[in-house]
Protein 1
Amino acid sequence: MTDPGTRRVLVVNAGSSSLKYQLVDPDDGTSEASGLVERIGLADGRARHTCSAGTFTTESDVPDHARAMELLTAAFAEHGPDLAAVQLVAVGHRVVHGGADFSQPTLITAEVVETVRRLIPLAPLHNPGNLEGIEVARETFPDVPQVAVFDTAFHQTMPASASTYAVPRAWREEHRVRRYGFHGTSHAYVSRRTAALLGRPLEDVAIVVLHLGNGASATAVDGGRSVATSMGLTPLEGLVMGTRPGDLDPGLAGHLADRAGLTPDDFDRALSKESGLLGLTGSADFREVMERRAQGDADASLAFDVVVHRLLHYVGGYAAVLGRLDALAFTAGIGEHSPELRAEVLTRLAGFGVELDPEANATASGEARITTASSSVAAFVVPTNEEWEIARQAAGVVAG
Ligand code: AMP
């Protein structure tokens, strides 16, 4: 257990029906407690709290986020650590959409809350839950600074050439239509760790980060700054994901409205929940797709090939945008745990100076270099740690 005098940040990730939290030391990323309140708004809610004393589950009615926050404080009071006894320097809130208004983690004031509320049309599924979390945390911890850390903020450094869609001026100006990008906290953390693993200053290196989880995105990072990213106005664009398709022909919406009578809601639902791996194979779970592929399933085999094709398309494109490439980083569930996918991508890049180390790739666990010492582009597995990054950024805001 760490020294009670050590700084800590309570990291809160509130969604519309869940509230996840972790108590993190912003200096070394260690976590003394974490938990999840699920099924907020439903009759049969559940809360789970894990700390040094064990894992504790409570079944309870959780009508709203205020009740979820009560369960959080009750779990800390009952099972520890005692929040009143630790040096809680901030509550760090994950906020999905900061639009063009936020390029940095930001101390939450009434004005910031209003701005996040104005951004709801850009993230109708996420920002309302994030705001509920902020409001109940401000009431529960009135004396602790609250900091918003935005998923979009890291990408605000993209040049206009990368963030602008070639669409009518009215869409861009009245409806804020542009590329924002997401997973910024992960891309920031992983690119920093990748430079450290390369043994070079972040300012000097060109990196492509592949965040491959149920949601997936690629980012080109030049000297620590995002210069291009694959997710766009919404988290649907770019790579093939668990249930989202990634890049599509924009003509598809009109085509299906005419031919199949699809409404905008039908279209949204199909692209958010029924596409990607699920649309191609019937399973959104990459591990299951790989198991089926190993048994000779043609749909699973095609899905793998489509995923790899799209990854190669982005890696090649981003290497060209960067003008050079020092390193590739694989992170999130699939990036961290699928040596098969990493091997396929890296082997196909052999012509560009990537030399896979098959043994290192097969046995990688935690942070690992998976290319040979002589490979001119290095590749790494870097487990992401968004909670630590949120804690680090929140503590940085408070320290000034
Ligand atoms: P995340 O959203 O980061 O939790 O990643 C979830 C995805 O990672 C799912 O598609 C899982 O099937 C995939 N995943 C997790 N473990 C493995 C594994 N050992 N092999 C392949 N895919 C995995």
Protein 2
Amino acid sequence: MDYSKIKIPNHVGIILDGNGRWAQERGLTRSEGHQEGFNNLMKLTEHVFKTGVKVLSVYAFSTENFKRSKEEVDFLMNLFENKFAEYAKDLKEKNIRLVFSGGRGKPVKKKIIDIINKCEEITKECTNGIMNICFNYGSHLELVEAFKKMHTDIDNHKFSIDDVNEDMLYHYMFQDLPPIDFLIRTSGELRLSNFMLYQASYAELYFPKTYFPSFDAKEFDKALLEYTSRDRRFGGINYETKNN
Ligand code: FPP
């Protein structure tokens, strides 16, 4: 694709949905679907950053996903335990920083928290882009934690309540990232499921029917074409395209 004619979003969010249905359609187990989803994510990440995207946030596991069957949760936790470090090594070679958004306590095993901290540590100097994995994540939890941290800083006289503004809230999120420009949810489901609600306030939304394991580089380029065609107004008027 000729990327010179394409608008590249600075921050892309992807809700990785449809692993289970992808597997079911092929007579495979849900776990095999998640495994394939992970394999796809590794390949897709490389492509996304090559197009010029600077920040990629993916929803890998929500705070609510712990309600799934023990078998499925155990499989996913083992996958994360075994793959996060490999992923960090791969990203470091590409000069991409790996960060995680989400609660870093129970019910997540200490071993996984240690791996997460290490992944962030080994990639912290990387400058080519930021990969943000939302794990044990929920937007409501993030906002509640942000308000608590902000309250502590006000109590400690770092600033006064009158200084609080909209931009400041970003610094109190799990990671201090820019707003999401383009939010993709694969598999045809039409909801945001508690994913980066503050950061996605003005995101362009895209809901391809493709299940995540099949959402490849070609599908991503198709999504970029769609993004390029959108007229982003942020509540105002785009005078370049307004015709009356
Ligand atoms: C939702 O599909 C997917 C998940 C809950 C897990 C997503 C995780 C990955 C793709 C692996 C990422 C791995 C790493 C190491 C970052 P679903 O199971 O809800 O699918 P369904 O709606 O078709 O059942």
Protein 3
Amino acid sequence: MTVLHQISVDLGDRSYPIVIGSELLSGGFDLSPFIAGANCLVVTNETVGPLYEAALLDSLCGRQVETLALPDGEQFKTLDTMVSILDRLTASGFSRDTTLIALGGGVVGDITGFAAACYMRGVDFIQVPTTLLAQVDSSVGGKTGVNHAAGKNLVGAFHQPRMVMIDTNTLSTLPERQMKAGLAEVIKYGAIADLEFLAWLEDNMQALLEKDAGALAHAIRRSCELKAEVVSDDEREAGRRAILNFGHTFGHAIERCQGYGDWLHGEAVAAGMVMAAELSGLPSGDVDRLRTLIETAGLPVASPDIGEEAMRDAMGMDKKVRSGQLRFVLLESLGHAVVSSDYDDAVLSRVLSSAA
Ligand code: NAD
Ligand code: GLY
């Protein structure tokens, strides 16, 4: 077991560490300092559980631990699934000092975090993310929730984990398509906040696709540092945190119009980032640079053929809408994002009409 990096999300007395390392699960990384009581519920899914649950349970011996495997898939990111966690907690008589442990990708993490936010008005939870997307994004920052028929992640709560444990070895079993989807969020950080990191990604994309351990550890560390800094500054998205949604207004609309689970979240965000860069009015060379990087990562660079009207309808439910006005995360330059409602509607129409 090797701990490679430790990053702090600074939120006063709710601050917590993100521990990044290899073989943390098989090496029995000690979670005790982050578990207050005797009861733990490990929430995973039917895919990840058989791969990593046993190692996690070994490290929790001596406590009253139960496990719950959710069905696998974005289509199960629903209130019903969240309630199935609450049902287990009540049936087992778990008390207020229970800790939930989310073992899986962003779907398991978001649902479990929301259950932790709701049970007895809030119990502790720990994130053990096992997809690249969850390791660089969803496990950090305390956004929890589920989808609603009217829109993605429309029901949820801000609830920070007690810690995030990232074992990079879990990526060894992650399917290639899921790796690429995670790379979309990694590219996002370079585009919105760190031009030097974007250039590093251009030089190292092949190594990342080949799951080179050193390259992955660097990409995960830098992504988590950038996310931790933004979240520490604006936990509840009063302002700046919204830049983390670069490409997501378009991406969420694509996901919603297609039905969740067709394109992966990261794939929709990838196309959405190119669309947002076009709407930003960047010099065409900069848009091309971002498009090329996204293409090199094996990700889509244009929306499927959905149509302007359907996309506009879907974007109307975006959480950044204020007083009926759409707001987008736009790039002032590569490496510097702002949230703005100052965009050219004719360019938006063109962006929405141009499909792959
Ligand atoms: P996911 O959780 O659906 O995982 C993808 C697939 O990989 C699933 O089939 C899963 O079972 C499987 N899997 C997970 N780990 C594995 C492993 N190590 N080996 C083999 N298979 C594995 O998808 P995701 O991309 O991790 O997360 C997407 C979700 O995250 C979306 O619902 C999105 O809205 C949410 N999200 C939340 C935030 C946030 O801030 N809370 C940020 C970004 C995305
Ligand atoms: N993934 C966007 C956020 O955490 O704010």
Protein 4
Amino acid sequence: MAPRITVVGSSNIDIVVKVERIPRPGETIIGGDFVMVPGGKGANQAVCAAKLGADVTLVARVGDDAFGRMSLENFEKSGVRTDYVIIDSEHPSGIALIAVDSKGENSIVVAPGANHALAPEDVENAGSVIAESDVLVVQLEIPSETVRRAIELAKLLGTQVILNPAPIRPLSKELLEQVDVLVPNQHEAAHLVGEESSERLDPQQAARLLRDLGVRNVIITLGAAGAFVLAGSEEMFIEAFRVQPVDTTAAGDAFTGALACAIAEGSRIVDAARFAAKVAAISVTRMGAQSSMPSREEVNAWNF
Ligand code: RIB
């Protein structure tokens, strides 16, 4: 039986332009043609896990507009269950404006729209699905009270919780104590441990500090430098797979979605992180967010 995952999170349409470099404040630059692709951290993670073979239910809100319909079509095509994707007639779909430079690095501005109306009650309505799930995945592109309720409910129902704290905001010790696996990138980890910048972040020290705050397991993703894993008493660096990046948008979502899939299948956290690093590496060789997520067959056949 396929492992079951519930993702509570955002859904956007990404409007992406390739540029030579990210513009400075006040500067106008000419880019390439724009493309519109389904995105949003929650939806990206859901699509990633579903394409890898998990049985995934997404709890999200989209607007009653062309963007919302485009997202729904892609969920159905990718095998994501949409029973708890609410079509919100009062708010437009979330939109992300993304510039991707010649090295594949990006800058993103999100207009959250309907994502900011995703309410604790929307999560409660999906309680029976969360109860049957092996893993609940949540990020921070939705209201804080909805994140809190999702985590609280999953813990009550005996479902493991993976939190990808992106985009970062302050998190209480009480919330962190309920998280089974925290997956920040180095910037988010720096913020959570009170460092001003991620430049001098020692991932091992940061992971230990986060464990002291009550998180059971921590995986800090480090881009091309791989990831640092603290799982119970085990600690190790996982090397990144070497690829030529085309677009790093949603690499963290590919990592989190794949990690959730492997943990739900019963993998040890360290092995799940190695698998997630492979899936994230494949995703950066392709343009777009959901469009960059590989199928299980593609992951198995991929040669680095
Ligand atoms: O993590 C990448 C995602 O962030 C994009 O798809 C964009 O929609 C924003 O949510």
